[in-house]
Amino acid sequence: MAITFDHVNYMYQPNSPFEAVGLSDVSFTVPSESFTAIIGHTGSGKSTLVQHLNGLLKPTSGTVTVDDFQLTAKTTNKHLKSLHQHVGMVFQFPENQLFDQTVERDIAFGPLNFGFTNEEAMSLAHQAAHDVGLPDELLNRSPFELSGGQMRRVAIAGVLASQPRVLVLDEPTAGLDPRGRAEMMAMFAKLKADQQLTVILVTHQMDDVADYADQALVMAHSNLIKAGTPAEIFANPEWVKAQQLALPTAANFAQHLVTRGFEFDSLPLTAEQLAIQLRGQLPKEGR
Amino acid sequence: MLEQLTLGRYIPGHSWLHRLDPRAKLVLACYFIVIAFLTTNWLTYVLMFAFIGGVIFLTGLSFSYFVRGIGPLIWLIVFTAILQLLFTPGGHIYWHWGILMITSTGIQTSTAVFLRFLLIITMATVLTLTTAPLAIADGVEALLRPLRVIHFPVAQTALMLSVALRFVPTLLDEAQTIMNAQRARGVEFNNGGLIKRLRAIVPLLIPLFVGAIGRADDLATAMESRGYQGATNRTRYRVLKWHNADTIAVVVILVLNVVLVVLRHM
Known about the structure:
A: 11 helices; nucleotide-binding (chain B); ATP binding (chain B); EcfT (chain B)
């Protein structure tokens, strides 16, 4: 599903002493089945932006278009249910949304709300549990008995079970150990390929942007200040630092190599790109 | 939805009212609420509303903010007033149907209920809008202190109160987050009949309780690791000081009381 933001503004608690700008004139397009990363420092409006994707927040002015659904200030809540189903949201620390008595029932909760029959919901729940790598023997346990990493997988399965076409991930790997983080990102990449999902990822991990994203959106002070491929975003390291962001590990490494006399045609963003460009430059005995 | 209610909310500021001693504010707000019941004729209502108008002016907050904040509660007030109107016998009967009737006494009492309710809620709103929750807890502790004579656990009660107040915004935020997550999974909180709505609350309440209990546990650990012990005589960082302004506020309320008593006999 393609997504378009057209001059979207959002104001928190308008006309009160707590009034605050959430989004200011944000416009961009996300092609169907692409992987888009949203980056920016804390409080820059990333989470506000993604909450517009499934109508949890409605623009104060402007239009959000998801496929053929148009979301404006006037959209009523009654029309939002199909949008909720087609745009799956994985919030920060999604394990906080678990509540049911068994893992299976918690995962099936979404499909049941969206009108699937009990059998369909259970079958979708089993499929989603399998997709996120939860062993079958956990399905009848209470979600509160599981480890933190397993709880997060249950919560993600609970979103996937409703068969969304767009998957919005708000810092899905926060609080996981490095291995759990790598596994989780690989899992999202596989899900995207298998189910032809459009993925939107809010993240502070520049390596994930370099490794997975087709395009990146940079937010600062409620504004969208740059949109482009990761190569375009990271092309100017000084600008990146000025936005309180960082370079991907490989790019950082390459920059240090430049001060030692190495030369790169373009700044490598991933370990693979770095290795390819280094191959010809290493002295013979080092190979 | 949760954002609209102003009752119980604090807005930081530096007005004369913000800087009053919380003990004075607590006692005077209660005192005002009590003397609100001394109102009888229109002169006394004019006096009280003029007074509360002045108080609102002193908060430095916009008048419309109060109007909108009290808006959601107006239905409660109107409902109470209508009950009074329909069930009060006495005086001249204008209309009656079964046990329902509109009488002259009914009109008088329901008007009184409506206006007094409005005065009380506005004053309570002023108190919470201009007093930080922790200052309220300090004030309550100071006012309860005499009860130590009868071994009432004043320090612990005050701690419980301040912890509870401290976590109100945190829990509201968390409730909002969980609501969003469950709405994204297809729960409709504002649709359907009573039973459907009650059922929709379960997926909200369970995670909220799980989170709150976890948080309470963490807080207890953090406090113990910093050596907190309940019963000892603790010194405090924020020491309450009585200023001239507090005395002036007391005098103003006493004068209001006297004028009120005079007016009600006119």
